[in-house]
Amino acid sequence: MKLLLVEDDADLSAALARALGRRGFDVDACMDGAEALERVRHHQYDVVALDLSIPGIDGLRVLQRLRSGGDHTPVLILTARGAVSDRVVGLNAGADDYLAKPFDLDEFEARLRAIARRHNSARELVCGTLRYDRETQTVFRDARALDLSPREGALLRALFAKPGHGVSKDRLHALVFSAGEDVQPDAIEVIVHRLRRKIAASGAEIMTLRGVGYLLCEAAAP
User: Cα–chain-centroid distance for residue 58?
Assistant: First the structure.
């Protein structure tokens, strides 16, 4: 399970990363809101553990920006604020769960796994005759795996990861291309064009959301 831990207490962050690493988590850690947003933009995480009291862009605004941008990665809020009103604000902003400090490591792990499990309750996602196996990260058309280039696969998986939601071109660009890679302005459009040919007549289509990005959905009946 890939976890982004956003915590500005360096000692606590290091201790949690070590402990969760021993328990099978792949942990990325950062200490401020701006870096957290950049990490989520460039990587796909199973769950985010987000402290509210972080420097720069605070945790609540990070969460609000993620949700307003169409990112639905599960988020567990961590905070020393224990008041009911604070929990309500966090949950209403789009958090999946809330854990007040100090907390027990076993409970922290259990909550992380629970919200990730709820989010990924289905191993397979289906659109038309396309099937995305989350475990193997393979896209099938009927019973046959689609022959996709690494970039085509990354883009199609990104669309499958947001069922029913548009994915911005900026986020697709960040997920498909390496940071600093020199690519043409229309590179995403070229990959989408190739994918559309490969999934033609599959019952699924990639819709262009003008000014936003792209959406994978069931093809309209002829």
Answer: 19
Q: Three-state DSSP class for 36? A: helix
Spatial contact of 20 and 46, defined as CB atoms under 8 Å apart: no
Q: Domain coordinates of the chain in residue numbers?
A: 2-119, 124-218
What percent of the chain is modeled with pLDDT above 90? 54
Report whether CATH 1.10.287.380 matches the domain 2-119. Answer: no
Q: Do 66 and 37 form a contact (C-beta atoms < 8 A)? A: yes
pTM: 0.62
Which CATH number is 124-218 given?
1.10.10.10
Q: Which amino acid is at 44?
A: Q
CA–CA separation, 104 and 2 (whole Å):
20
- Contact (CB, 8 A) for 36 and 30: yes
DSSP 17: H
Confidence label for 116 from pLDDT (cuts 50, 70 and 90):
confident
- 118-151 pLDDT, tens digit per residue, is 876 656 788 899 998 877 889 999 889 999 999 9
